[in-house]
């Protein structure tokens, strides 16, 4: 059922750092670089899970980590958005 040839992105499952923290770091770097602009949505949990080859729960925990850091806000039924002050 799993496709070992599918790219999983720059995440390292062998790392001591949990995958959700690694994913949150990737998104945080995209926010800091301006690739994800203030007031713009970040990819959905489903999209992150698909793009990085992780479970949706991992993507959800990464989004929660970003909320805890104040980098994104989540609007129920709409998605998660980069906070206006996160760009640097």
Structure description:
The protein has 88 residues and is mainly alpha-helical. It has a single domain, classed as Arc Repressor Mutant, subunit A (Orthogonal Bundle). Helices cover 41% and strands 9% of the residues. It has a two-stranded antiparallel ribbon with strand order 1-2. A hairpin with a 3-residue loop joins strand 1 and strand 2. It comes from Streptomyces gardneri. InterPro entries: Bact_HTH_transcr_reg (IPR050679), Tscrpt_reg_HTH_GntR (IPR000524), WH-like_DNA-bd_sf (IPR036388), WH_DNA-bd_sf (IPR036390). Keywords: DNA-binding, Transcription, Transcription regulation.
Task: Put the structure in a nutshell.
The chain has one domain (19-82): Winged helix-like DNA-binding domain superfamily/Winged helix DNA-binding domain (Arc Repressor Mutant, subunit A). 41% of the residues lie in helices and 9% in strands. It contains three helices and two strands; from the N terminus they run H-H-H-E-E.
Which spans of ≥5 residues are poorly predicted at pLDDT below 50? 1-8
Structural class by secondary-structure content:
mainly alpha
The helix/strand series, from N terminus to C terminus, equals HHHEE
Instruction: Indicate the percent of residues in helices.
Output: 40-55%
Question: What is CATH's topology name?
Answer: Arc Repressor Mutant, subunit A
Keywords: DNA-binding, Transcription, Transcription regulation
Protein name: HTH gntR-type domain-containing protein
GO molecular function: DNA binding; DNA-binding transcription factor activity
Pfam families: GntR
């Amino acid at each position: 059922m799993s496709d070992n040839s599918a790219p999983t992105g720059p995440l390292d499952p062998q790392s001591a750092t949990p995958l959700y923290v690694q994913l949150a770091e990737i998104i945080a770097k995209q926010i800091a670089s301006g690739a994800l602009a203030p007031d713009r949505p970040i990819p959905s949990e489903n999209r992150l899970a698909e793009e990085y080859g992780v479970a949706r729960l991992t993507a959800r925990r990464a989004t929660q980590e970003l909320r805890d850091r104040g980098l994104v806000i989540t609007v129920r039924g709409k998605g998660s958005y980069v906070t206006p002050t996160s760009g640097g």
